[in-house]
Structures are given as C-alpha cells and as structure tokens.
Design brief:
By secondary structure, the chain is of the alpha/beta class. Helices cover 27% and strands 22% of the residues. The chain is built from 6 helices and 11 strands. The strands form 3 sheets. It has a 5-stranded parallel beta sheet with strand order 6-9-10-3-11, sandwiched between helices. A 4-stranded antiparallel beta sheet has the order 2-1-4-5, covered by helices on one side. The chain has a two-stranded antiparallel sheet with strand order 7-8. It comes from Salmonella typhimurium.
C-alpha cells in the first residue's frame, strides 16, 4: 500500500535528500537531510534545538508552525508523526518491568532485537527489573541506553536523538556512534548534541549551529 504523505500522520521525509524549512512568527530554520549523513544540531541553551526536534516529530502541534519539505507544505499535525521517532533527553518510563516497558513502547516483534542492543550497550539491569515512578531508580545513562535501544527495528524514516550520550562513558559513546551510523544507511538521523567524541566518531556528518543562524 502506498503511503499517503499528505496525511497529517506522516512527515514526508522518505526521499534520500530532504530540504526542510520550519518557521513561525519568531523563527525560520532551514536544513538539508541526506541519508548517509548524520545531521548534528548544536546551539546555546534556549536556542530552540529541542523545539525543532519536537516540531519535526509532531510532539509540538504545527498549528502555529509551518513545515515545508522539498518546497511542499506539510499538513498541520496535531499528534506525533508515525514515521518519525523522537528520543528525548529524559524518557518517561511507566511503572513496571523493563520488559513491560519495551513491549509497551515497541511491541513484541522488536523484543529480541532490543535485547541484543541492550546487551551491546552493556545495559546492567535484567529485563525483570522493576521500574519505579517514571524511571527514578535508573541512572541517566541507563535511561538513555534504554531509550536508544527502543529505536531498534522501528520502521520509520527519521530518528531524532536529543542528547543521546548523556551519562555515557567513552565506550558507550563509541557503541552508540556505531549504532547511529548503521541506522543512518536507511534512515535520516538528527542528533542534538555537543558531544565532541560522538561527533568525531561519525565522519559523515554535518554540524548546524542554530545560535549562529547557520540553519
């Protein structure tokens, strides 16, 4: 079945190269996404990096924001786009085991793939570990590893990582760098990060500093 990208549920980012323009009354940002090239968005705190991520993922309503892709204005979205995956800095987990959270967020079909990626990330909690609150008994690094792992096996066109190496050691940064490069072969990847090791580990990348209005 052919995907109808004029539908509000989808963001038209399936093409290998996507010229994107996002604007409203207070800002106008432009970026070019290319499969095989990771896009890093940097900038000072409060410059709007996370806002861009949330608009592109549909986590902020586009009623006040306009998105154009390859010159075509996208439909106004009032819910997250189904073909865009946003991994926030602080993932809200639900009370229950880690496995229950995986099943809730990703479904049973991706369970084994996610297990393998968690092992690769050297995630040190068993799948029957009970999560309290919204993940208050997990460290920042553990939550990030789980959040990144939940992207594995997802049939999406764009993944947006917001500070994915928060709480990672040097080895963890190397592992996530390799994972991002693998995913970037078939998907567009945007990473919001100032992590120099992460950036240096990904040679095929463009760096966009929105503070300097280079977008």
């Amino acid at each position: 079945k052919k995907t109808n990208y004029t539908d509000k549920q989808y963001l038209h980012v399936k093409d290998n190269i996507c010229n994107i323009e996002i604007y409203n009354k207070s800002f106008n940002h432009k970026l070019i996404l290319t499969k095989g090239v990771v896009t890093f968005i940097t900038g000072e705190n409060g410059s709007g990096k996370t806002t861009i991520a949330k608009i592109l993922s549909g986590n902020i309503t586009t009623e006040e924001n306009t998105i154009k892709i390859n010159g075509i204005q996208q439909e106004k979205a009032n819910s997250p786009f189904v073909n865009v995956l946003y991994v926030p800095q602080d993932l809200d987990l639900m009370p229950g085991t880690i496995e229950e959270n995986i099943l809730h967020y990703s479904g049973i079909n991706n369970l084994n793939t996610i297990k393998k990626l968690l092992h690769r990330f050297k995630f040190d909690k068993p799948l029957d570990y009970e999560i309290k609150g919204y993940g208050h008994n997990l460290s920042g690094g553990q939550k990030q590893k789980l959040g990144v792992s939940l992207t594995s096996g997802k049939n999406v066109d764009l993944i947006i990582f917001d500070e994915p190496t928060k709480g990672f050691d040097s080895l963890g940064i190397k592992i996530i760098s390799d994972y991002i490069k693998e995913e970037n072969k078939e998907k567009h990847i945007i990473v919001i990060s100032h992590d120099e090791q992460l950036i240096n580990n990904i040679p095929k990348a463009q760096i966009i500093d929105i503070t300097k209005h280079e977008v």
